[in-house]
Write a structure and sequence with these properties.
heterodimer; A: alpha+beta; Chemotaxis protein chec; seven-stranded antiparallel sheet; 4 helices; 7 strands; about 30% strand; B: mainly alpha; Four Helix Bundle (Hemerythrin (Met), subunit A); 5 helices; about 85% helix; elongated
Chain lengths: ~150, ~140
């Protein structure tokens, strides 16, 4: 059975390394529960094709601002249109790379445009999916992979 | 500073264009992110966007010519990525022309441009350098 989680871990790891010079490790998930309780940025991206569903990425506010600071070399004070758009594009790149990996496992899929939501409270998270808790030097993040084979 | 030495491909003409692109994008962002009122910075934003439209097309063209010259096997896919991004920039430009240069839309464009450019140069273009390096090792 194909592991649908690993391509997203691999793609996230690669994109963080190349774009942000950051290593990513899998974590237990306990550490991030508190950080993602505060204001966090949720980016959701739909997948269509042989597999269907949505991938949700959750980044704490402070981590999001730091990611865009690393990219731009400029301090970011708030989650505005510029920051949200840069983060969306990073998620777009990660998801696109993961879909390329899935293609090598004979699943032909495409990604839909990402949607960004800033939430003060942690929404119901991972109830139906495979949550991948990750840790970086600038904070924790989570990827919730909700994918299923398209029904015939 | 946006530019990092690790982005260097080792192809002088392409590296020079990448540096120029990064400098222009950085100066565009410094204006865009400044605290000045939008009315005072919109003309500078328009000028930079006009430059970028032409320069990105020229750069993509020159890079594609180089890929063909060295026989880069993934040239077709790379050209598709260029074409997709050019189309996305075109959609933004159309929106700017139809709806005016509204600050939220320009900020959104800039955020996308920043992340796209860094990924493209740090990941996608590096594959060309890796290919050329392999050729040199084999020679």
């Amino acid at each position: 059975m194909t592991d649908f989680v690993h391509p997203f871990f691999k793609a996230t790891q690669e994109v963080f390394r190349l774009m942000l010079d950051l290593d990513i490790q899998k974590s237990s998930g306990e550490a991030q529960a508190n950080e993602t309780l505060d204001k966090a940025v949720y980016v959701s991206i739909g997948i269509v094709g042989d597999l269907e569903g949505t991938i949700h990425y959750c980044f704490p506010e402070s981590m999001t601002l730091e990611m865009v600071r690393i990219l731009s070399g400029m301090e970011m004070a708030e989650l505005d249109d510029f920051v949200a758009s840069a983060l969306s594009e990073i998620v777009n790149i990660i998801s696109g790379n993961a879909v390329t990996d899935l293609f090598e496992n004979h699943y032909t899929c495409d990604i839909l445009p990402p949607a960004v939501e800033v939430s003060e409270r942690r929404p119901e998270w991972g109830a139906k999916g495979n949550v991948l808790p990750l840790q970086t030097d600038i904070g924790p993040m989570e990827v919730d992979i909700r994918l299923a084979r398209k029904s015939a | 500073m946006m530019w990092k030495e690790k982005y260097t491909l080792g192809v002088e003409a392409i590296d020079a264009q990448h540096r120029e692109l990064f400098e222009r994008v950085e100066s565009f962002m410094l204006v865009l992110r400044s605290k000045e009122p939008w009315d005072l910075k919109v003309e500078k934003v328009k000028d930079t966007l006009d430059f970028m439209k032409e320069y990105v097309v020229k750069h993509f063209h020159d890079e594609e010519v180089y890929q063909k010259k060295v026989g880069y096997p993934d040239c077709g896919r790379h050209c598709e990525i260029h074409a997709q991004f050019t189309a996305e920039v075109g959609e933004f430009v159309k929106l700017f022309e139809e709806e005016g240069y509204q600050e939220p839309l320009v900020q959104k464009f800039a955020g996308k441009l920043l992340a796209w450019l860094i990924n493209h140069v740090a990941a996608t273009d590096q594959k060309i350098a890796d290919y050329v390096h392999r050729l040199e090792v084999q020679a």
